[in-house]
Amino acid sequence: MAKRRKEKDEEEEKPFKLPKFDEEKFLKRERRNIKTTFLSFIFGVIVAVISFGFWILLSGNSVRWYLVFLFGIFTGSWLKYLFIRLNIDLTDFTKKNWFASFMIYFFTWLVVLVVIVNPPFYDEEEPLVNLVVLPEMQEPGGTVKILAKITDNTGVEKQDITFTLDGKSILSKDFDFIDDVFRYTYGPPTDFSGDETHNFEIAVKDDSGHTTVREGSFTFSNDAIYLGTPSPGDLLRAETPISFVVKPDVWRVYYRVDDSKEINTTKDPIDIKNYVTKPKMKGWTGGKENVTVKVSAEVIHNFQNHFLKDDEGNLILDNQDRKIPYWFANYINDTSTYSFDVANESSIGKTESEAISHPKADVVEAPGFEILAFLISLGVIFIIFKYRKKDRRN
Question: In 3-state terms, what secondary structure has residue 107?
Fold first, then answer.
């Protein structure tokens, strides 16, 4: 025990000696590390340019991204041969050094490739045109709204849009293009004598010469909305089912009894073109003759990530600071008026009609892949350089 204590005391008494610093070796290693970092970066840029060529050659191929990605990964193995070819001393090049060099190469390649395959360097995407007709079938007394959300990675101006209706070109002053949405209103028709169909075409050309063409049609008909049951003039009781047939797709169907408030109908779960109601709904009055009924329908649409803005183009927020979806709307008013007699029953006009809420707006908050990849790449490169700087200090 005493012997161990003596040995321990002797060790403690020995003076601490700093290891000899080999300045030449240190400088040689640091120069080597700087060269490998620079070469990894340059190699990443060169491979990105080569990958861009493959990107163009593989245009239209569904697996293009995967092939280019694999090319970038496997081409990184040539870093070793590049260093050897340039007579770089790799005798003490550790796994950590290889990993850092590959990461610098890879993320340089990824960032440069993402930048050059997008505008303003390259554009192969056609304008995206999301076309909507509100409604596709209208009563003769109404109008039809033709809407199209038009987007492109280089932008689209009003003069880039060509619109033809029934083979005739419509001047740009006769339609609107506001906040990326094309808007044109047609009707009501004049001298209507029967069902009539109109065809139209929207062509959009971007700065790179890519053109997207969308075609559509709409119809005017007296049968866009009509009474299914019962027959006009019938005596209605509280539980008498009333159905309206609505041919176009609509959001809601409602009607008025004389000058009553709007009464919502309910969609038939079996026949989705039928909308049903009963005189027991509030708005009906019992014991009356020749009650008039006028039926209407409302069609709405919300484009993806399209929100309400003020006159200056600023987003309008609700009380919870949320963006308010912009709903485009139009109406179908049945040109026919229906007349009924209503029985004198106490249960008539006592039930509240169904409240109909807006459908869920098409909102996508996730960032695009290019932005996400770019931010991740910058973050990883920053971490690598910070780590290598710390390693050099040590």
Answer: helix
Can you tell me the distance from the alpha carbon of 139 to that of 143, in angstroms, rounded to the nearest whole number? 8
Give the CATH number, domain containing residue 295.
2.60.40
Residue 372 lies in a domain: no
pLDDT at 51 over 80: yes
The boundaries of the domain holding residue 194 are 128-220
Q: State the CATH number of the domain containing residue 190.
A: 2.60.40.10
Residues 154 and 82 in one domain: no
Task: Give the rounded distance of the alpha carbon of 193 from its chain centre.
Answer: 42
Q: Looking at the domain assignment, is residue 81 inside a domain? A: yes
State pLDDT tens for residues 309-349. 888 888 888 888 888 899 999 999 999 999 999 999 999 99
The structure tokens listed for 277 are: 């109601």
Answer yes or no: do 263 and 169 share one domain: no
d(C-alpha 355, C-alpha 263), whole Å: 9
Residue 279 placed within a domain: yes
How many domains, the chain? 3
Is there a domain that residue 388 lies in?
yes
Do both 235 and 321 map to the same domain? yes
pLDDT number for residue 327: 95
Please answer whether residues 171 and 159 qualify as being in contact, where contact means their C-beta atoms are separated by less than 8 angstroms.
no
Nearest Cα neighbor of 294 from 341, 337, 232 is: 337
**What is the Cα–Cα distance from 218 to 189, expressed in whole angstroms?**
12
Q: What sections of 89-169 are H helices per DSSP?
A: 95-116
Q: Which amino acid is at 129?
A: V
Residue 373 sits at φ, ψ, to 5 deg, of -65, -40
Return the bridge partners of 209, or none. none
Structure tokens at 251: 């959001």
User: Both 172 and 187 in a single domain?
Assistant: yes
Contact 34, 100 (CB under 8 A): no
Question: Encoding tokens for residue 310?
Answer: 């003020």
The whole-angstrom separation of Cα 72 and Cα 49 is 11
Question: Model confidence at 166, in pLDDT bands (50, 70, 90)?
Answer: very high
pTM of the shown model: 0.73
**Alpha-carbon distances of 267 from 182, 271, 276, 358, rounded to whole Å:** 31, 8, 6, 15
